[in-house]
Amino acid sequence: MYLRTIVFLGIYLGLMAVAPFFPAAGVWGFVFESNYHPPYNRWWGEPLLSLGERWSYYIGAVMVASTLLHWPFQRQAPVFRHPETIFLALFTLNTFVVTSWAFVYSLSLKGAIDTAKWFLVYLCLVKTHSGRRWMSVVLLIYIVAAIDAGLECTFNPKRGRFVRGGPTTACFDENFVSAQMVSLLPLMGLYAVSPGVPKSIRLVCAGGVPFVLNVIAHGQSRGAFVALVAAAVAVPVFTKGPLRRWSILAVVVGALLAMRLFHDQFWERMWSIGTHHQDRSSTNRIDAWRDAWSLSIQDPLGYGAEAFDKGLPKSVTVSTHNMYLECLVAWGFQGALLWLAFLGVTLRSAYIISLTTLRRTDVDGRRLHIEAVGILCGMIGMLVASIFINRMRWEMWQMFAAYVVCLKNTVASSSRVT
């Protein structure tokens, strides 16, 4: 059995064993395990491959049970008073309603269950992390997993996972994984340059940025590149005071690294954005967007998950390649409005937290400000990337929203104390 397999299995079982006594460990275990599922698909090793998604079910059951066990004792972590929770709950309910008349019932039910699963993770994270010293651990798990992906991409890219146009068995969804990297880079950059962050975390993030950028270079995703530019511009816009100077430095250094890592083939593909009318994949996407809009007008209440890909009449064979249109086709206008409302209130809350914590000079206050700005800029990158990818099942939406609610609860509790 591979050493990597043994280490990962030890982490997984260890967190599962601790979770009944320390429920945050259940969330960490679930997040850790989810980072080694598709689309990353960097499994722990062949001996464990056959168990598939059952790993997710086991740790998920432990996570939910542990959180419910401790729920009455976590009164500092209100959940349902926040608009993020209300809109996400209504959106989740809508997925099951639309599934009742879905074009492909089985696929739509799977999509609805997946949405409900991440709503449960959202609830568990808020209840177990609000106002806690260990809040940042869940973000660090995502960051370390992204760096791990970058290391594999850099030193062992020929497994088929990080080579564009690899074999059909390749696990690398270049558009989505590149966008996942973009969502975490603002947070990594701010962690790396902010004096109030522990030195060990600063070093890990600073050392990991080149490897994460290298994943984007290998993916050659035009949507992720545009999202990266948007996130990079947002960082100095939403940072204030001394942190703005550090954030500008981080963006400049990141741009220099990108220029070094992004090869000629990458830039040739990026320049094709300006000549999209001559590129077949681009014209197919535009046709898919038109088809998706036309189908949405025909049935405004939605067709259910994956209906566009699995049989609805259209002029092209590609998917919608757009999260917003995917949501519109799958869950109807009412679902799209609920989803956009959920994203909107999350962005607004992150922005408000970044302002309310701006003048705090204590270590916790600086951390709250850094994380609020990092999540805000990461979500801006995600919003841009979602114009070009059709990932409704992107867990970072729920995870970032849950963390923003944790930040709100933490700020509220600290205000009551003072």
H/E element order: HHHHHHHHHHHHHHHH
What is the total domain count? 2
Cα-atom Rg, whole angstroms? Answer: 21 Å
Counting DSSP E segments of at least 2 residues, the number of strands comes to 0
Largest sheet: none
Quote the distance from N terminus to C terminus.
53 Å
- Number of helices, counting only DSSP H or I runs of 4 residues or more: 16
Q: Helix- and strand-based class?
A: mainly alpha
The geometry reads as globular
Low confidence ranges: 43-51, 163-171
Helical content stands at: over 70%
Beta percentage is under 5%
- Mean pLDDT over all positions: 83
What does this structure look like?
This protein has 418 residues and is mostly helical. It folds into two domains: 1-73; 74-413, no CATH class. Helices cover 71% and strands 0% of the residues. It contains 16 helices and no strands. It has helices spanning 3-18, 24-34, 46-49, 54-70, 83-99, 105-129, 137-155, 174-193, 199-219, 222-238, 241-261, 264-271, 280-298, 323-356, 363-385, 395-417. Helix 1 packs antiparallel against helix 2, helix 8 (174-193) packs across helix 11 (241-261) and helix 8 packs antiparallel against helix 15 (363-385). The radius of gyration is 21 Å and the shape is globular. Residues 43-51 and 163-171 have low confidence and may be disordered. The chain crosses the membrane at residues 7-31, 55-73, 85-104, 134-155, 176-194, 223-239, 245-262, 328-348, 368-389. This is O-antigen ligase-related domain-containing protein. It is found in: Membrane.
